[in-house]
Structure formats: structure tokens, C-alpha cells
Amino acid sequence: MSHAVHPVPTRLGAFARLAKLDVWDYYLAVPLAWSLCGPDGWGSAPVLATLGLFLVGAVGVVAGAVAFDDVTGFRDGSDWANYGPNAPARRLARKPLLTGELSEREAVVFGWGATLFGLLVWTWTVAFAPHSPLWAVLLLALCFFAAVQYSWGLKISYRGWQEVFLAGFGVGLVLAAVGLCTGELSGFAAVQAVLFGLGPLLFGVYSNTRDAAGDARVGRPTAAVLLSAQGNKLFIAGLSVAEVALIVTAAGLGAAPWWFSPAMLPAVALRVAQLRRGVGLGDLLGARLIGLHAHRATVALLVLVNLFAPVLGGT
């Protein structure tokens, strides 16, 4: 049965949508890592080259992972259930396998090509980085392995690990990039990496809630599938509260400057607005959109905090 819906605008555009290049939130780990390198690293050619390679490799790895995710969703029918023929055209167009713009074989070949490209570039990154502590190299290897196995091979997202991956991958990207550039890891960097990782998780859980029926049909056990409707709301609220609590308590725990919490108030306000929209009013798509803005605002604020820390006093 053919699922073709729209004519092919361009082949390149179809592959770009397969790679989800318009969703660049994980790539924000790179400017955040740069800001954590301190004044000595901000203008350093080796640091800038390392982060540039790191970003190119990340694009390849993520593009491969999301391509494999689309292939798996196409094969098991979950994407057709969640993005069915009644979906808005713009939303359905994000799935070029469903629209018939790409074949399954083309998507698989693209996925492997992007993945191997990302592995090659990340290998170069480690080879030419100013530092290569074992913990950073192992963390980067774990990020690569988890991305490839997200919905392919071991299919960790089909085994109850989706939420762990959504947060952990972001945490790993930030810490690995900082480690390769500085060779060190501070408590403040760890706090910021966790806040970064919570960003994709806190817009992903709203998408998972919207897609719960389709995921349940194919045995993909997200929190939204495993928990009751009320339990899932409590889960989302708990994650939101945990993020705010980390921001509020970081200074008291000695991991952040005293002015960190006030500086992050705009991000906290967005997170509260997201919780109200999604959990309070039940507007899942609206909450997801606010979550995207909250993540990007959080990263921007963290970068500013790091840039001003040497002047105002940091950790």
C-alpha cells in the first residue's frame, strides 16, 4: 500500500528532513562547551578547531540516529499511527518515508552513511583535541553507541530507556566537549551539562504523551505509555521541579556563583509556563513549543553566565 501524499520538492530537502536538520537543539552543546572553556580557551585556535570538528561529527551522528528512528517507525507502523493521513501537511512532511519522497533503502543507506561520517569526524576530533582524558573519550564513545542503538540494533528506546537517552545524550555531549578542550571537569560544568540534558527531555516528554497510543501499539514503553495519565503528569511535573531545584540550589551547594539563580529566572519562568500549558491546560503541542524556547533560552543564559563569571565571580 502506498503512503505517498505529496510530490517531491527536492531530493536534498527530503534528506535534510530525514536528518531533522531543523531541530538543532543538541548542537547547542557546542557553544555551551565553548563558554565553559574560560577566557584562555575562548580565542584558542585548538579549542575552536576541536569544537568545530565536534559539531560536524555530532550532526552526522544525530542525523544517522534520527534516520534509523524513522526507518524503524516506518517499519513497525508507529509513525503512520502518530503522523497519519489526517496530520497537518507540515507535520507529515517531516517524515519523508511516509510521504513517499524517500524509499526505505535510501533512508537506511543515508543512516549508515551519516553515522560512519560522524564516527570518522569524532575520531579526528579526539586525535587533534588539546586534551584527551580517558573519561571524555569513553563518554564520547558512549554517546555514539547510544545514538546508533537508540532505535536500531539494541533499540534502547524500545526497552524503556528513551527518557534516559534524551537527557543523557545531551549531558554527555557537553561534558565530552569540555573534557576534550580543557581536560578538566568542574562542578559548575556538571550542573550546566545536566540542565542542558534536561532541555530535550522536557520537550520530548510532551511529544511522547501525544504519541502514547501509537507507541503502545508497537511496544515502545515510554513513560507516557507505562504510567497512567495522572502518573505521567506527575512525572513531567517532577522533572520540571527537579530542574528548577537544581538551578536554585546550585549556588548553595558550592557549584555555582551566588548570582546564578537570579540570572536564570527567565528560564525558570518559561519552564513554569510550559508546565501550566501542558499539564495544567493539556495543550501538549503548545507545551512542547515552549519547551523548545525554554531549552534555547537556558543555553543562551548559561553562555552569558559563563562569559560574565570571570568578571562577577564564578566557581
UniProtKB/TrEMBL annotation:
Domain of life: Bacteria
Cross-referenced PANTHER family: 1,4-DIHYDROXY-2-NAPHTHOATE OCTAPRENYLTRANSFERASE, UBIA PRENYLTRANSFERASE DOMAIN-CONTAINING PROTEIN 1
Annotated localization: Membrane
Keyword Transmembrane: yes
Keywords: Membrane, Transferase, Transmembrane, Transmembrane helix
A matching Pfam family: UbiA
Main location per the UniProt record: membrane
Topological category with respect to the lipid bilayer: Multi-pass membrane protein
Protein name: UbiA family prenyltransferase
Organism of provenance: Actinokineospora soli
Spans traversing the lipid bilayer: 48-68, 107-128, 134-152, 164-182, 188-207, 234-260, 294-313
